[in-house]
Design goal:
Blueprint (H helix, E strand, L loop, with lengths): L30 E4 L5 E5 L2 E4 L9 E3 L1 H9 L1 E5 H8 L11 H7 L8 E4 L12 H12 L10 H9 L6 H5 L3 H4 L12 H11 L9 E5 L5 H9 L2 H4 L3 E6 L2 H14 L2 E6 L12 E7 L8 E4 H6 L5 H12 L11 E4 L1 H13 E14 L6 E4 L2 E4 L1 E2 H11 L2 E6 H5 L6 E3 L1 H13 L11 H8 L6 E2 L3 E3 L11 E7 L26
Parallel strand pairs: 7-8, 7-10, 8-9, 10-13, 13-16
Antiparallel strand pairs: 1-5, 1-6, 2-3, 2-19, 3-4, 11-12, 13-21, 14-15, 17-21, 18-20
Helix pairs in contact: 8-9, 9-11, 14-15
The protein binds S-adenosylmethionine.
The site of S-adenosylmethionine has 24 residues, from helix 5, helix 7 and strand 8.
Length: 507
């Protein structure tokens, strides 16, 4: 077995900006865990591939020695012992030795392994994928404190170059995962099931004549929603997309027009809608609230109602006007979903009497929102009890439930781990084989991968409602209706669907 040089020539080295970790001192006594449920592709009799977490880095190719090194990272062996056993041997077809791999695999950009004295979960023998991922995300976002409150709108206006890949890599949404029919969605797509649910709730009759979809991403929800309405029903409906990201508007309008909507797009911020008052029947806002402006309020600002900036003053003024019940003591700093509140006020303004809005996003009901770190930007949990309070204060009739409840999702469906789907996408990209990230059952994945499926190891499936899959229980739905429409004096406009749908406390 030939020994290898420590690294390839820097000129052609695609790894040159991936900083290695020095293997010396205490670290040599730490143990190594390979990433739990790592997905491995066998490309040939003597070649295996694994994917670093960072999309910018090339795939890691291993020979038999490299595969043995990965196999030996089982939490029992120390880094020192692994270095002795594999350090000098060629571990990949690129002639990289074991030391080269050991120096990189536990860095955030690779995230193929974890080094420590205890397993990362701290309380069980199992290394936990989500905890590892959290560490990785912290690695991506060392500059969180420096982010300004307008970084989200800047990111959407300037930071997204094109629609391709954004929802496959940067932020995969629930509607993106379920854009193809899936057993978990009663054999339908997300958008189609949402449409069916709106119909069951009576929201499609009388027919809305002006629908505004805010932050529609690629436009799959509207495409699928179109299928729920007949051609005759769609006639006379104006479908307006409003999005901060210009490149998404093209995809939204073209998918919607193909699906039969009379669609137009406006590039604008949902926190200040360029739409006439009292002109809209239905607003759809799917997974967008967490992207709206956060305001970081200090304890002192909350206690004195004096803001450090005009925007903070506005936020405090709003809190006071709507008598949001905030009880001291407060943490040193809190996040207030100011942008989402602005949007809700705008929704009140632009809706016709009797008009309705459906707002879906991940969030919490107690305490203060936390930041959620994604590549290139940070989003913020939505505090739904604050938002519901604001909705009632504005005059809306409101209802609230979780997303799985709204859609009556089938809890026993097993779907592919999303981490595995990202990895498969990379393997297929390298093999020039089409593959898209979505929620796959095992049968659907076998069809999508064909013969390739036999050469993949480590594929694993979760119950679709298991928090370890996509945290679907964290997604909440706020349904609001502006009184004064035909429904006034009638029984409540929201029908509770037959199949056990239970709303949270209503007004
Ligand atoms: C997480 S994506 C959700 C996309 C889509 N609704 C889905 O479910 O896949 C957020 C969307 O909202 C848009 N967006 C973010 N902030 C916005 C704002 N303040 N006003 C309007 N659109 C915004 C983004 O450009 C993107 O289309």
């Amino acid at each position: 077995m030939p020994e290898a040089a420590a690294s390839p020539s820097p000129i052609t080295d695609p790894w040159s900006d991936a900083m290695p970790q020095a293997l010396e001192g205490e670290i040599l006594n730490q143990r190594a865990w390979r990433m739990p449920d790592i997905v491995i592709y066998q490309h040939g009799p003597e070649e295996w591939w694994v994917a670093p977490l960072d999309e910018e880095l090339p795939l890691v190719r291993l020979n038999r020695m490299g595969a043995s090194l990965l196999g030996a990272m089982d939490g029992r062996t120390t880094i020192g012992a692994l270095l002795n056993q594999f350090g000098k041997w060629v571990c990949s077809p690129h002639h990289l030795n074991g030391r080269w791999h050991l120096e990189r695999w536990a860095t955030p950009r690779f995230s193929l392994a974890y080094y420590g004295t205890e397993p990362p979960s701290g309380h069980s023998a199992e290394a936990k994928w989500d905890l590892l991922l959290q560490k990785v995300r912290e690695g991506w976002h060392q500059n969180v404190k420096a982010e300004t409150e307008d970084h989200l709108s800047k990111f959407h206006v300037q930071g997204i170059q094109g629609p391709h890949g954004h929802f496959e890599i940067i932020e995969t949404t629930v509607s993106h995962l379920f854009r193809e029919p899936c057993e978990a969605m009663q054999g339908l797509t997300y958008g189609r099931l949402l449409g069916k649910t709106l119909r069951q709730m009576g929201w499609l009759s009388p027919k809305p004549t002006h629908i505004v979809e805010v932050g529609a991403g690629l436009g799959y929800v509207s495409k699928e929603l179109a299928g729920e309405l007949s051609t005759e029903e769609r006639q006379g409906i104006a479908y307006t997309f409003l999005d901060l990201t210009r490149p998404f508007l093209g995809s939204q309008t073209s998918l919607a027009r193909q699906a039969g909507w009379h669609a137009t797009g406006i590039q604008a911020n949902a926190e200040c809608l360029p739409i006439a008052s009292g002109s809209v029947d239905l607003i759809i806002d799917n997974e967008n609230l967490a992207d709206m402006t956060p305001v970081h309020l200090s304890e002192e600002e909350l206690l004195t109602f004096k803001g450090a900036t005009p925007q903070h003053d506005d936020a405090l003024h709003l809190i006071r006007r709507m008598r949001l019940p905030l009880i001291p003591p407060f943490p040193d700093e809190v996040i207030f979903n100011y942008g989402a509140m602005q949007f809700l006020q705008e929704a009140w303004r632009v809706l016709k009497p009797g008009g309705r809005a459906i707002l879906i996003e991940f969030g919490i009901e107690q305490d203060w929102p936390s930041p959620v770190r994604l590549p290139g930007h940070t989003e913020y949990e939505v505090q739904f009890s604050h938002l519901r309070h604001a909705a009632k204060w504005l005059g809306f009739r409101e209802q609230y439930c979780t997303l799985p409840q709204l859609l009556g999702m089938k809890r026993d469906t097993q779907v592919l781990c999303t981490g595995a789907a990202y990895t498969l996408r990379r393997f297929c990209q390298e093999l020039k084989k089409p593959f898209s990230v979505r929620a796959y059952t095992e049968r659907e994945l076998k069809t999508a991968l064909g013969d390739l499926h036999r050469n993949i190891n480590g594929l694993h499936y979760h119950n679709v409602l298991d928090p370890a899959w996509f945290g679907l229980w964290d997604f909440k739905v706020l349904l609001v209706e502006k009184p004064g429409g035909l429904g006034i004096g009638q029984p409540p406009a929201f029908k509770t669907a037959g199949g056990g749908l239970r709303w949270y406390t209503q007004r």
